[in-house]
Amino acid sequence: MDFRGLVLLAPLTKGGNLPFRRLCLQHGCVVTMGEMAYAYQVVRRSKSELALLRKHPDESCFGAQIAASRAPDAITASLAAVERGATWVDLNCGCPIHDTVKRGMGATLLQRPAQLGKLVAEMVQAVPVPVTVKIRLGWTESEQNASEVAKAIEEAGAKAITVHGRTREQRYSRAADWDSIARIAAERTIPVIGNGDLLTWYETHERWQKSGVASVMIGRGALIKPWIFREIAEKKAWEPDARERLGVYHDLAQKMKTHFRDDEKGHERAMRFLPWHFEFFCRYRPLSAQRFVDSARQHPLMQTRFPDDEPGLSVLELLLRDVRPELHTKLAELLWAAPDVAVAEERALALAAEMPPIVGEAGEMATAHG
Ligand SMILES: Cc1cc2nc3c(=O)[nH]c(=O)nc-3n(C[C@H](O)[C@H](O)[C@H](O)COP(=O)(O)O)c2cc1C
Fold first, then answer.
1. What's residue 310's pLDDT?
2. Is the C-beta atom of 171 inside 6 A of ligand 1?
3. How far is the CA of 9 from the centre of ligand 1 (A)?
4. Which class is 7-234 in CATH?
5. Distance from C-alpha of 243 to C-alpha of 273, rounded to nearest angstrom
6. Minimum CA distance residue for ligand 1 atom 19
7. Residue from 7, 8, 9, 13 whose mutation best tests the ligand 1 pocket (most atoms within 8 A of CB)
8. Which residues 6+ apart lie within 8 Å of 18 measured at CB?
9. Which atom of ligand 1 is nearest to the CA of 369?
10. Could you tell me which of 36, 20, 34, 12 has the C-alpha nearest to residue 259?
11. If you ran DSSP here, which 8-state letter would residue 361 be given?
12. Which of 86, 237, 248, 297 is deepest in the core (most CB within 10 A)?
């Protein structure tokens, strides 16, 4: 496995469910990653945690991500991932949430680079596939130690490091710091994968080239537009209209049906995910290079407000931009039930008549999912 020259789908809890990953594959993604699984839960043979390590046969290059604080747990979980076909295993050292850090996992590991190095070395010794590590720049802005952490990880034998260019404390409040990502890439011999705020093909190529990273990783950009992978590969935007987007979302609903099964239980499980995806889908705006390339250089587009000021937007377009959770649930339901896109469109228009879309500001694109 060569970690150079790749565009990876980021590990995304909830978002990176198997049907969504299949949707990304359909739109040009080649390298996927699973949702973070807690190693101690895998050790206890938790069904739901083991399910996070599963890949689809179509995923030919799949990284399973685990969160662990102790080597025995990390190794057991990694081996369970390998048994299920993982191409490589990634150790999470960035998760900022309280439940994870209080157990000594996720971003907590950044605080003791030597200990982290030992953990990674033990994993490398025991796991028969490449081990990689995903880090942030540090715990807080004043405690940025990513250079030291990355050195320890390389010396421990990891095959690549992903750097998300923010600290644990920052969450998404600031733009990702690509200068720091570039510095770490220059300091290391193993491939560094740059991550943070890549929302368009042109931002991706510009940051990739300027920073000198080996590869790039896309998170929220893919949740907003799963077709970003094809755009990056082709260096060209695809700006689907509302009907075409509805087709993509209908495809996801059908993939959920296949995965979770088309029965009451499957429906219930799918509805834990499908409405949630609309929190991201509703943020889609065409960000043409012609109009936005200069502002993307000054400030990532992720941090910019885009008022819905375009005249003449169709009812369907307004509906798909609506941010109300109750509307997202209704959209998810109708996509699940509709046999094809034409019927889905008909029902979506009926929904728009029942719940007229609220036109307003798109909101701060960076605020969800701190
Ligand atoms: C909904 C959501 C879930 C995430 N879950 C994980 C996770 O399980 N493991 C992980 O390492 N990072 C996780 N992240 C962080 C992303 O992988 C990525 O590092 C971060 O979003 C920055 O990239 P982006 O600007 O392209 O979104 C998550 C992010 C989001 C938005």
1. 76
2. no
3. 10
4. alpha beta
5. 21
6. 164
7. 13
8. 54, 55, 56, 259
9. 31
10. 20
11. B
12. 86
- One-letter identity of residue 219: G
Give the list of residues 6+ apart from residue 206 with CB closer than 8 angstroms, or none: 296, 297
Indicate if 29 belongs to the active site: no
Distance 10 CA to ligand 1 centre (A): 6
| Nearest one of 235, 225, 328, 232 to 286, comparing CA atoms | 225
Q: Domain coordinates of the chain in residue numbers?
A: 7-234, 242-354
For a mutational test of ligand 1's pocket, the pick from 164, 280, 283, i.e. the residue with the most ligand atoms closer than 8 A to its C-beta, is: 164
Mean pLDDT per block of 10 residues along the chain (370 residues) reads 97 98 98 98 98 97 98 98 98 95 96 97 98 96 95 98 93 88 98 97 97 98 98 97 98 98 97 97 92 88 72 92 95 98 98 86 41
pLDDT of residue 309: 65
The confidence score (pLDDT) of residue 366 equals 38
Residue spans of alpha helices (H) in the chain: 18-26, 39-43, 47-51, 71-83, 98-101, 113-126, 146-155, 178-187, 201-211, 220-224, 228-234, 242-260, 264-270, 274-281, 289-298, 315-321, 325-337, 341-354
Inter-residue long-range contacts of 122-128, CB under 8 Å, 24+ positions, other chains counted: 122/71, 122/74, 122/75, 123/71, 123/74, 123/75, 123/78, 123/89, 123/91, 124/156, 124/157, 124/158, 125/157, 126/75, 126/78, 126/79, 127/75, 127/78, 127/79, 127/82, 127/89, 128/82
What would the DSSP string read from start to end of 39-73? HHHHHTT-HHHHHTT---TT-SEEEEEEE-SSHHH
CA separation for the pair 192, 4 (Å, rounded): 8
Q: Which of 201, 243, 198, 239 is nearest to 221 (CA)?
A: 198
CA 354 from centroid of its chain's CA atoms: 33
Cα distance between residue 130 and residue 193, in whole Å? 15
Query: Would you give the end-to-end CA distance of the chain in angstroms?
Result: 32
